[in-house]
Hints:
The structure is a single chain. By secondary structure, the chain is mostly helical. Helix content is 80%, strand content 0%. It is built from 3 helices and no strands.
Amino acid sequence: xxxxxxxxxxxxxxxxxxxTFYTNTISECANPTLRSAIQQIRNRDEAAQYKLFQMAxxxxxxxxxxxxxxxxxxxxxxxxxxx
Length: 83
């Protein structure tokens, strides 16, 4: 079980890194066809990552941070939109 947990967390970390790379590449891509292709790859990988995240969470391999309180969310939103 520990080995599975390590592998799942490693894959999650790798996919997270790939998603960041795709996002950066998309934002800098001037070719519409290539941009669209990379967006499709990113979308597919995001969906796969989310399924793996759900499995990891269900097995107790991943514990997300506590959710922010509503007033904290509103305060952050206000700060970001006031700029």
